[in-house]
Design brief:
heterodimer; A: 257 residues; alpha+beta; Arc Repressor Mutant, subunit A; SH3 type barrels; 6-stranded antiparallel β-sheet; two-stranded antiparallel ribbon; elongated; B: 732 residues; alpha/beta; Rossmann fold; Helix Hairpins; 6-stranded mixed β-sheet; two-stranded antiparallel sheet; 9 strands; 66% helix; 6% strand
Chain lengths: 257, 732
């Protein structure tokens, strides 16, 4: 646990991070690859690895593979998490494109305190979870940055919709719940559509009939021979075969009695 | 202004009550049904408004959307693009407002001059839903009229609004602009700019609409674009890129985003106090009915009971009016007989025309009853449930839930007709399932075949003809399904088509509607009796009359008759047994008459043909008389009974009660053993569809397929009949 208190230079953190990524992707890290990824020469890599090895973070022998010690892996993971949190925040909340975000995260991750990083992560999570915000809200901000302007009209529409969805006990993009094929719902069960796999022809027809992302479906009953199923959505009954219901992914919704 | 003719199209989703409204507006008899996609044909009508304006109305096919998914959708949008109606009345099912508005948005995106009709407002009010039509009108910027097509409410106002909109119509209407969000909008803008700059198909379509269709990968538009110029290829390329990017970043497709945003737009509309529910009555009456009627166990039981009840009602209740019609024609025959001198003309009118048409017409009451019930169930929405319940079964045989309807119309319940049945197969999207359905639907017991089967069952199964009839119907289904399976495993192999169908709420049809639609079909039947069957009857009469027996042979029969009389007289003299002898003589003379009749029939064209076919048909056990009737019945199956009657009772055909007399006559004929009867029934069930049906099949598919159906089913039925005859000969 000493590693947590250990302060590494930004430079060293970059090395550790790179090694961690290389091991994750290729199972081994070689100094040649490290040099290429960080755009530095081989001798600097050797120096850095020696320093990290001294701190007990990497196992390093010249001309051999580089591996991380358990401590080293822990530290690297933390750095990486910080990096990813920052990048996600830029991309998902601030709607910055991913290359630019990556670069900025790289530079900011070393200079920013753990406390602030944690707050940023919390905020990003809050935005996703809060019924008044949600991924749609963030999405809306991205749109707003690029072209549209906020009008009273659109705000009112958005808030009523949000409140409505909240009252129904459902929200868009609930994180955590797994997607299940509509086919697997039993009569009486409800789901919120998260995605329809595939496009064209029949899939388009299904979407045209109102089976769109976010809409609620209830399996009403299954036909006498076990197929097709009768589902209710948007206030009407639709009959479709289980083959089609297979490709419609939903998140189960608790039916509050 | 008053003599101006305005052109207005009526659009709407299936089951929106569009056809009912169309009827209410035009007073015409457009076909309407609760089965999605039934009005595929183009229906037009004229209305004269009080101010003297004439409106020419065209009924667009019922579609959920305006993509290229089905022929109907392409037709609907093409009418708007090509014929440029002055206004488009869009009828919505207000009980399903969100989904109904989906079509409205697309119609407005095209730039059509839309007037919205909110139909089924009575149901909406019953469900305690409040719809603010004024607000909807304000938000969409088009007139909205509340109506109830079933009661004809709102029809006048819709027409008036359409008139006003049409007259106020600007040169070009700005198509509705919907934002498709940050991922799609920039692409649409880019596409629109390119399309406008190149003038790419813009003479026909609005630029932004084209851009949307490209992103939706609309087959029809993309194909047209390829011919229109190089920009088509470029746009397709870009769509592929955009689609790939969307799949990578958002795990979705452009078409999905477009549908999402359209529904989002609708959501945005309806949330603005357009619709409010006092109470979420999730469990309405229709759901309650379905809970029983489509129940896993009860559903099929109810369905079978209902079908049997229809069957029973038709044949027991229908027997009375059937008798009246028969008597009417008997009377007519007797009248003509007494008015005309004996000779060829009288024979042609009585034996040919009146007998032939009368045999067919006497079944009109049965057909009327059957259709009355069928149309009622169809308009009620029950037939859709039947398709839903039977889809799985149909799928097993390589068919589709939507095949049930063509089968039933063709005579899955006796009394149908294969011609509308074959046409009803249009609702099937997949070509393979459609062809299999079209091939096998004529196996069903149509009204014409019913006549033959009633006669045959009365003759050979007198103890329980209704049960025998029921078994024949089940046989028809079994053969249709098995043959379909055979076809789908050999000639038309391929995957099954998805089953996506709306199950509309049950709606009690109006008496007016049911009567109109029943009459529509019955009239078709009567018309057929008056035209095709009249002609065929006379033709058959001629074939069975000419050439007449040569004078010499007739003389020979005459001489034999005289011989019998003289012999008899010489033997008995004037003794007390004279009376008995009289009887014997009469019997002998009758036998002689019959022999002469048989000889003269054999001498005719028809007789020679029937006899000539005997070497082939002997394996199936048919007597040559039946051959004649079967040939005649190819023209129209109704002819079977009348031809059989003529072959057996020719000269005494004046005694009209043909089918019962004929049944008695056949029952006593030793030629008709059980195996012959079985093989004849099976052959009659399966062999070539009648001429009119073949023409319909050719029109619906192709000449090749029509001929394949004709000869294929002929060969198939022959093989089955031979098999049945040979096998059952072992047992009886």
């Amino acid at each position: 646990m000493t590693a947590a208190t250990l302060t590494l230079s930004a430079n060293m953190e970059d090395y550790l991070e790179t090694i961690f990524i290389l091991i994750r992707e290729k199972t081994v890290a070689r100094s040649r690859d490290i040099a290429r990824l960080l755009s530095v020469n081989r001798s600097s890599v050797t120096g850095a690895l020696q320093a990290l090895s001294r701190n007990g973070l990497v196992n390093y022998e010249p001309y051999g593979y580089v591996t991380l010690t358990r401590e080293g892996a822990e530290v690297a993971e933390k750095i990486l998490r910080r990096h990813e949190a920052l990048r996600d925040f830029f991309v998902r909340v601030l709607a910055i494109d991913s290359d630019e975000a990556d670069e900025a995260a790289c530079r900011m991750e070393h200079g920013i305190s753990k406390h602030i990083v944690d707050r940023l992560i919390d905020f990003a999570e809050f935005v996703e979870v809060c019924p008044r915000a949600g991924a749609k809200w963030v999405h809306g901000f991205g749109y707003q940055c690029r072209e549209a302007s906020i009008s009273k009209d659109t705000c009112e529409r958005c808030i009523t919709r949000c409140l409505d969805e909240f009252k129904q006990g459902v929200r868009q993009d609930q994180p955590g719940k797994p997607d299940v094929p509509l086919k697997e719902l039993k009569p009486g069960e409800k789901g919120q559509i998260s995605r329809i796999a595939g496009a064209g022809g029949v899939k388009q027809r299904i979407r045209d009939m109102g089976v769109t992302k976010g809409s609620l479906v209830e399996v009403v009953r299954i036909a006498p021979m076990g197929d097709p199923m009768d589902v209710k959505l948007k206030g009407y009954h639709l009959s479709l075969r289980k083959d089609e219901a297979e490709d419609i992914l939903v998140k189960k919704v608790d039916t509050r009695e | 202004m008053s003599d101006k003719v305005l052109y207005v199209a009526v659009a709407g989703q299936p089951n929106s009550g569009k056809s009912t409204m169309f009827n209410a507006m035009t007073g015409a008899t457009a076909r309407v049904g609760n089965y999605p996609g039934i009005s595929v044909e183009r229906t037009e009508g004229n209305v004269r408004l009080p101010d003297g304006t004439t409106i020419r109305l065209v009924d667009l096919p019922g579609t959920y959307s305006l993509t290229a998914y089905s022929q109907e959708e392409v037709i609907a949008r093409n009418v708007i693009f090509n014929e440029k109606p002055d206004a488009v009345i869009n009828l919505l099912d207000a009980t399903s407002l969100e989904r109904s508005l989906y079509l409205t948005l697309q119609t407005m995106e095209i730039g059509a001059n839309v007037v919205i009709g909110l139909n089924m407002m009575d149901e909406v009010k019953k469900q305690h839903i409040h719809i603010d039509s004024e607000k909807l009108s304000a938000l969409l910027g088009v007139p909205v009229v509340e109506c109830c097509a079933r009661r004809g409410m709102g029809a006048d106002k819709l027409l008036e609004m359409a008139r006003q909109q049409a007259l106020a119509r600007p040169e070009t209407i700005e198509p509705l602009y919907i934002s498709y969000g940050p991922d799609i909008d920039p692409v649409l803008e880019e596409f629109t700019a390119k399309i406008e700059a190149a003038g790419f198909m813009t003479e026909r379509y609005p630029a932004r609409w084209l851009a949307i269709k490209y992103l939706e990968e609309d087959e029809v538009i993309v194909a047209q674009g390829r011919k229109a110029g190089p920009l088509g290829q470029a746009l397709e390329q870009r769509v592929a890129e955009v689609s790939a990017a969307l799949q990578a970043t958002r795990n979705t497709y452009p078409e999905a985003m477009i549908a999402d945003y359209r529904y989002g737009f609708i959501n945005g509309l309806t949330r603005q106090d357009v619709i409010s529910r006092e109470d979420d009555m999730r469990f309405n009456y229709s759901d309650k009915i379905d809970k029983v009627v489509t129940h896993r166990l009860l559903g099929p039981v109810i369905m079978c009971m209902l079908l049997y009840a229809m069957f029973y009602i038709t044949f027991t209740l229908g027997a009375y009016p059937q008798g009246w019609v028969e008597n009417l024609f008997a009377l007519l025959g007797a009248l003509v007989e007494s008015a005309l001198p004996e000779g060829l003309l009288r024979s042609m009118i009585v034996n040919g025309a009146i007998d032939g048409v009368g045999a067919v017409m006497s079944f009109t009451p049965l057909i009327l009853l059957m259709f009355l019930m069928l149309v009622f169930l169809e308009d009620l929405g029950y037939m859709g449930r039947v398709a839903y319940m039977l889809d799985r079964v149909m799928q097993t045989f390589g068919l589709h839930g939507a095949s049930v309807m063509p089968f039933i119309i063709s005579g899955g319940l006796p009394g149908g007709c294969a011609v509308p049945g074959v046409m009803a197969a249009r609702t099937l999207r997949s070509k393979r399932e459609r062809l299999a359905t079209i091939f096998t639907a004529p196996f069903m017991v149509c009204g014409a075949k019913t006549t033959a089967f009633i006669m045959l069952t009365a003759a050979f199964f007198p103890e329980n003809p209704t049960r025998a009839m029921f078994i024949i119907v089940l046989l028809a289904w079994a053969f249709a399904l098995l043959t379909a399976l055979l076809l789908r495993k050999t000639v038309i192999r391929g995957a099954s088509t998805p089953f996506i169908m709306e199950l509309p709420p049950y709606r009690l049809p109006t008496l007016h509607g049911v009567l109109i639609h029943t009459w529509d079909r019955v009239w078709q039947y009567i018309k057929k009796a008056g035209t095709v069957i009249l002609a065929v009857s006379i033709l058959m009469w001629a074939l069975m009359t000419f050439p007449e027996l040569p004078e010499a042979e007739r003389e020979a029969f005459e001489a034999q008759r005289r011989g019998i009389e003289q012999q008899a007289r010489a033997h008995t003299g004037d003794g007390p047994s004279g009376q008995i002898a009289e009887g014997l003589i009469t019997d002998a003379l009758t036998a002689m008459d019959d022999a002469e009749a048989q000889a003269s029939l054999l001498h005719t064209f028809a007789g020679r043909l029937g006899k000539g076919l005997e070497p082939v048909t002997q394996y199936a056990g048919f007597p040559w008389q039946a051959n004649i009737a079967l040939i005649g019945a190819f023209a129209a199956k109704e002819v079977f009974v009348s031809t059989m009657a003529t072959t057996y009772s020719m000269n005494s055909a004046a005694e009209i009660e043909e089918s019962t007399d004929l049944s008695k006559r056949l029952a006593t004929d030793p030629a008709y053993t059980r195996p012959v009867v079985f093989s004849l029934i099976v052959f009659l069930l399966l062999y070539a569809p009648c001429l009119v049906t073949v023409v319909a099949i050719i029109r619906e598919t192709s000449l090749g397929w029509g001929l394949f159906t004709l000869f294929g089913s002929l060969a198939f039925s022959y093989l089955v009949a031979v098999g049945v005859y040979q096998l059952s000969s072992l047992f009886f």
